[in-house]
Amino acid sequence: MYQPSHPIPVSIVTGFLGAGKSTLLNRLLGDPALADAAVIINEFGAVGIDHLLVERSGDSVIELANGCLCCTVRGELIDTLADLLDRMQTGKIKPVNRVIIETTGLADPVPVLMAIMAHPAIAAAFSVDGVVTLVDAVTGIEALERHDEAARQVAVADRLVITKTDLVATEVAASFAKRLAGINPTAEIVDGAAPMAASPGLLVAGLFDPARKSAEVGEWLRAAETGHDHHHHDVNRHDEHIRAFALLAGALPSRQVIEAFQHRLAREHGDHILRIKGILAIAGEPRPLVIHGVGATVYPSRYLAGWPVDCAPETRIVVIGADLSEKAVRDLFASFLNRPAIDRPDRAALEDNPLAAFGFRR
């Protein structure tokens, strides 16, 4: 295996669903200082779109689409990093000066850390240059109270970025920051609206040091290292309550149609929606439309400059819900498209490989 003269720093960017990881990543990758960075993106669910939302083309963006980055994907991450080294050695890609791993919002970051720190060959070539965790000022408290993964993401962080502070009162943001400091007193807390949050320096957090973390984090790391944390994951299911599914379609009639669908969905099922995101084709519009939502909140849609390379102009929307009726969502979506909600003839094939319909290979 190719060994660089110095370990390549690895920045792990994590945070619960809807915290703004892809938005932050796009902002940072626009800086020339990260022109030679490689990006590894992991998402939950069989139909991946986050890699399409990163506005950078080429081989430097790598997708891991096998569910959450936990023990079952740890081996794939190791293989991906090893392959990255091999491609640099053989001249297939130019050397990278940093690796950025964006985890799914449902990921426990501990197995990601151990994939790098506990594998001798990988640890010799890469070093963890800190964990940056994004936390949503609007929904962060609820996420911490309802989801262990959100609390782990905060506890492991070297730097905490509070996003969407402009959407809450100043005293609410201050109280939230105090709550985060109680969970992780050693992490630096950064306002997502501050210049620091738009600087590549945000990723330079210093060598990850387990000794500076809480005793609980130390226990998590030891459990992951000894393999006592293993469990199986359906690619679309996180636990008995949380699962993901995709709404697939051709070009939608108009931007207004999808926005009306989003607002209706949020109004009727917002309590059960953890995340909705999509890249959509709109009839008569050459650019793809990107939509986002968390819970009952619908964020403004926006157009990308153009369709990503090798991405057909089709509509794909990923919905991640907790005790959410997939049938209710599909029926509602179909009603806005003025067509009955029936199973597609190739549904079985799509379930085996949902990306095949768009020319993606496993």
UniProtKB/TrEMBL annotation:
Domain of life: Bacteria
Keywords associated with the record: Chaperone, Hydrolase, Nucleotide-binding
GO cellular component: cytoplasm
Matches recorded under InterPro entries: CobW-likC_sf, CobW-like_C, CobW/HypB/UreG_nucleotide-bd, P-loop_NTPase, Zinc-reg_GTPase_activator
GO molecular-function term, one example from the UniProt record: hydrolase activity
Family: Belongs to the SIMIBI class G3E GTPase family. ZNG1 subfamily.
Protein name: Putative GTP-binding protein YjiA
Lineage of source species: Bacteria, Pseudomonadati, Pseudomonadota, Alphaproteobacteria, Hyphomicrobiales
Gene of this entry: yjiA_3
